[in-house]
Specification:
The complex is a heterodimer.
Chain A: E1 2-6, H1 16-20, E2 25-28, E3 32-35, E4 38-39, H2 44-53, E5 59-61
Antiparallel strand pairs in A: 1-4, 1-5, 2-3
Chain B: H1 6-13, E1 15-19, H2 23-34, E2 40-45, E3 82-85, E4 89-93, E5 98-101, E6 106-108, E7 111-114, E8 118-120, H3 126-129, E9 134-136, H4 140-151, E10 157-160, H5 164-175, E11 180-184, H6 191-208, E12 212-215, E13 219-224, E14 230-235, E15 240-242, E16 245-248, E17 252-254, E18 266-267, E19 270-272, E20 278-280, E21 286-292, E22 297-301, E23 307-311, H7 314-328, E24 343-348, E25 351-357, E26 364-371, E27 376-383, E28 386-393, H8 399-407, E29 429-430, E30 445-448
Parallel strand pairs in B: 1-2, 1-7, 2-3, 7-21, 9-16, 10-11, 10-16, 11-12, 19-22
Antiparallel strand pairs in B: 4-5, 5-6, 8-17, 13-14, 14-15, 18-19, 20-21, 22-23, 23-30, 24-25, 25-28, 26-27, 26-29, 27-28
Helix pairs in contact in B: 2-7
The chains are: A alpha+beta, B alpha/beta.
């Protein structure tokens, strides 16, 4: 899986992410964004496109292998 | 540190301990590694989970669109840390440079970062707070438990407190088709953070979406049935609300109790630190080895008259953590001040609410774009002739412009003609913030220190 956070201070509702990765990002109302904080690997390429296309670079995704950084003992 | 190579040695083999394993703690750890700290790094967190993101907990998760357990924060780089999760810090020995954990272990440090954040203020009557069906919403576990209960289809949800979190919960419940009552002590939702003019719009939004909104009332008691499940709430106006889920959204308490008696300048308002995130001790002397960042820190902000600001904002946690981390491993002349303009967002009832600056410091508001009636507008807050904050309802794209006005202490009312001239606009009016002596839900910005208009300071010792 790939973990996602969106800096919604930066987000200005351009909706590029919602066009490129609709399974992960969706507009909620005219301007607000809703996203799935964890996407399947299968979404990886679309997700990378969505993050790259964001005009304000608000989409933050895992830059390291999530399982390698897993914390021992996390429940 | 002095120029004897000790900083280089510390960067190479020193020990840094971060207390608080949430957004600020994680981003600080990443920054430390990014900037070349090669010593040992220990992350201490009271929850058993690795760092996770909180904004989705009151939105996506309550809407049933994401699982609370799947909100871990993305990692920007490897941190190579020792994690001590599920064990809260219980004490600090500043002289011996050790953090004591609740399980009795002690963790030594050369430099310490405190990012213990805040916790939800519980319902004050303990027996009532224990009733099944009474929730607060702050942690991943809170959100998971509440989402399960909402999934089960309660007959009515009661939200106590209409600040941002309470309002977002009410919005999610209505979107799920649940009956919702909101009880707010103040005159309107969001009134503490945004004032009565904007609060009136928030109230309209709630009512238009079918929320049974009751303002100017307090919940005086929660009642349980024979099996210990909450069944009703008594209100100060004498009415009763029958409910099977109660969510207490009465703001947050700073996690500083573990520092009591340590000698660090920490208390209910947070940990006082300088603009470079170095914590003060109780004598008002800045420490050189203890730093604070995120919701628990309060530091002087040059744009707001050097008042001490504590901000419960996502963006503040990120930027302050990065600055604290940088300063922890830098020469004093290479340190940087935390000067970011406060900013936050909320989305509720289909409207995107964003703000920059400190609206709650404003006394007047001018609707410069859009209209209150449409619930789409931009409001500029003025304080003593300058622009001090701005709020946007579905007008986010314009906010960077207003942020610049705040950063340049532009005059209020603004000198430009408004973009779309509407009847609401042009004239500043009283922003209608509540009397600070009247209790309401707290704003997400807390001001301390002295007024920006009055730079004199009076020191009155207690004894």
């Amino acid at each position: 899986m790939v973990r996602i956070a969106v800096d919604l201070n930066r987000c200005q509702g351009y909706a590029q992410c919602a066009f490129l990765a609709p399974e992960v990002f969706a507009m909620h109302g005219e301007e607000a964004l809703l996203y799935d904080p964890e996407a399947d690997e299968a979404q990886g390429e679309k997700l990378a496109q969505a993050a790259a296309a964001c005009p304000v670079q608000a989409v933050v995704v895992d830059a390291v292998d999530a399982s390698a950084e897993a914390v021992p003992g996390d429940r | 540190m002095i120029g004897d190579g000790s900083l280089e040695r510390f960067r190479r083999e020193g020990r840094i301990v971060v207390v608080g394993a949430s957004l600020a703690g994680l981003r600080a750890a990443e920054t430390l590694r990014d900037k070349g700290f090669a010593g040992s790094l220990t992350m201490i967190g009271d929850e058993p989970h690795e760092p996770y993101d909180r904004p989705p907990l009151s939105k996506q998760v309550l809407l049933g669109k994401a699982a609370a357990e799947r909100t871990a924060l993305p990692r920007l780089r490897s941190v190579d840390a020792t994690w001590r999760l599920g064990v809260p810090a219980a004490g600090l020995d500043m002289a011996a440079r050790r953090v004591r954990l609740a399980d009795g272990d002690e963790v030594p440090y050369d430099r310490l970062l405190i990012a213990t954040g805040v916790r939800a203020h519980p319902w004050p009557r303990e027996a009532e707070a224990q009733l099944d069906g009474v929730f607060v919403l702050r942690t991943r576990d809170d959100s998971a438990a509440l989402a399960r209960r909402l999934e089960a289809g309660p007959k009515r949800v009661l939200v106590i407190g209409a600040g941002f979190t309470g309002s977002e919960i009410a919005s999610a419940c209505r979107e799920r088709g649940l009956a919702v009552t909101v009880a707010e002590r103040g005159a309107a939702p969001l009134v503490g953070a945004l004032g009565g003019v904007v609060g009136a719009v928030a109230a309209e939004m709630q009512r238009e979406h079918g929320v049974d909104l009751r303002c100017g009332v307090m919940v005086t008691a929660l009642e349980g049935d024979a099996s210990g499940r909450v069944r009703a709430a008594q209100l100060s106006d004498g009415s009763t609300v029958e409910t099977d889920v109660v969510i207490v959204s009465l703001g947050a308490t700073r996690n500083t109790e573990w520092l009591a008696g340590s000698g660090l300048g920490a208390g209910p308002r947070g940990i006082a630190c300088d603009a470079g995130c170095r914590a003060f001790d109780i004598r008002g002397i800045v420490t050189d080895d203890i730093y604070a960042a995120g919701d628990v820190a309060r530091c002087p902000h040059p744009l707001f008259g050097y008042q001490f600001l504590s901000l419960e904002h996502w963006g503040n946690a990120v930027s302050q953590a990065r600055i604290a981390a940088h300063n922890m491993i830098s020469e004093s002349t290479d340190r940087i001040p935390h000067m970011e303009v406060p900013a936050f967002w909320s989305s509720q009832f289909g409207v995107n609410i964003k703000s920059v600056g400190v609206p709650s410091l404003g006394t007047e508001i001018l609707i410069s774009q859009g209209s209150l009636k449409d619930h789409r507008f931009l409001g500029v807050y003025g304080y003593q002739g300058r622009v001090i904050g701005a709020v946007a309802f579905d007008h986010a794209r314009w906010l960077p412009f207003y942020q610049e006005l705040i950063e340049t202490t532009a005059p209020f009312p603004p000198s430009f003609p408004t973009v779309d001239r509407r009847s609401d606009g042009q004239r500043p009016i009283d922003a209608d913030f509540p009397d600070p002596s009247v209790p309401t839900h707290g704003p997400t910005v807390t001001l301390g220190g002295y007024s920006p208009a009055d730079r004199r300071m009076t020191f009155t010792p207690a004894h």
